[in-house]
Amino acid sequence: MAGGAFVDTSGVRHYEGKVTAFVLITCFVAAMGGLLFGYDLGITGGVTSMDEFLIKFFPSVYKKMKDETHETSQYCKFDDQLLTLFTSSLYLAALIASFFAATTTRAWGRKASMFIGGFFFLVGALLNGLAVNIEMLIIGRLFLGLGVGFCNQSVPVYLSEMAPANIRGALNIGFQMMITIGILAANLINYGTSKMKNGWRVSLGLGAVPAIILCIGALCLDETPNSLIERGDHEKAKSMLKRIRGTQNVDEEFQDLVDASEEASKVDHPWKNISQPEYRPQLTFCSCIPFFQQLTGINVIMFYAPVLFKILGFGDDASLMSAVISGGVNVVATLVSVFTVDKFGRRLLFLEGGTQMFICQVIIGIMIAAKFGLTGQGQFSKGEADILLFFICAYVAAFAWSWGPLGWLVPSEICALEVRPAGQAINVAVNMFFTFIIAQVFLTMLCHLKFGLFFFFAGFVVIMTVFIAVLLPETKNVPIEEMNRVWKSHWFWTKFVPDQVVVGGNNKKVAP
């Protein structure tokens, strides 16, 4: 069998139930955790392009930015390690937090992790908004990172566990939708505050708003049946499952959840367990998907959109407005994924998105090479700038309906309960680690690789698209508890997944 498109899922069970208003409302509230991550992604680039912010914290960067003598290449004007540390320190803290969040999510529940994440983000936003020196600014960023780490660990798992299998993709992508809304809101706020005195304080401080919303929402949410069963409250879990599914006939699904939980409870070391050969598919995708997601180069746009547009010759207002436009495209394109992921599947969106991103990055690289060359001296005309912005938006759209949402959806839905906390922690940790690396080195890479940076990322897009085409089976409409059957049916992964998976010393049947 070639590729992963033709996986036999005929043996997978499908449970009775319907889409209830309770589930939709619950998942909407939980997905608000994405606002935190999105707001920070969008706000950082705009703030670091504001004159007052640079004068106060990074005067050497401001001096280079205003240099009109052409002694400094356009590619290198924002190349400053302390400035990039302001952006990247958050993701280093998020990486560390993800490992603590895995334990919290399993022991205290998904709600607790979401609340803790919101609280940390609230503290960080207030510290940043009130910052008087670079140390206070970085400490605030570290608190923001702790919040992001806890939320990115718990929210996708919560959404996957609450959602019926037939719309799990759409509801889980609600997390990515909130990320894109947060980015757009941040871009609009930056555009509005850029003319205000100390507007950067308003931009950074308003991060407290989504944090407060999440804290209140987490207190009001119900826990998932999986989490309740994990902690021994079977009666409440069954009642919650009936409410979620909108039917009294949940015995089969409930028993499967109980069986999965009992097997998972026998696992003393989920981190050790996920490294076993039978969990090789889950470990591979929980590691490689977030790695490739960051090597698409998307954070070149999301972190530094106003900075990048300013480097390319857009004016101050034009650079911020261009970031707003690309942020708007991001939101609309994510809606495309919401309505198509459970109809066309994960693989098709991955493959189409990868192809479109590759084409756009090559064209962007060629345009920048033609105008700026190796010297970094030049400027786009208005018409050329509009064409460049179009291809940047087309690239953002492709990411927004493919690798953006699916980078969170697929790792959260493929892991059996006994390795789910470890799998999601690996997903978040790898994502945050490479987000940190890209954030820290991007401006330096731009200075040295120049237009070649876009060809660098385009090369990785080719590699990851082939990776998906060959190794990822289709997982749409498959209940999480039945996911191992998909691996057993895949031409490559079947060699790792035995008919009987050993969990806690007992055999767990995978395929009939």
Search tags:
two-stranded antiparallel sheet, 23 helices, 2 strands, 72% helix
Description of the molecule:
The model is unreliable at 1-10 and 501-507 (pLDDT under 50). It is globular and about 75 Å long. It is built from 23 helices and two strands. The longest helix has 30 residues, at 420-449. α15 packs parallel to α21. It is mainly alpha-helical. It has helices spanning 21-31, 33-47, 51-57, 59-65, 81-107, 110-129, 134-162, 168-193, 199-205, 208-220, 225-230, 234-245, 251-265, 270-273, 280-294, 298-311, 316-344, 346-372, 382-400, 403-413, 420-449, 452-471, 483-489; strands at residues 500-503, 506-509. It has a two-stranded antiparallel sheet.
Alpha carbon gyration radius: 23 Å
- How large is the count of helical segments? 23
Strands, count: 2
Could you state the oligomeric state of the chains shown? single chain
Give, in spatial order, the strands making up the sheet with the most strands. Answer: 1-2
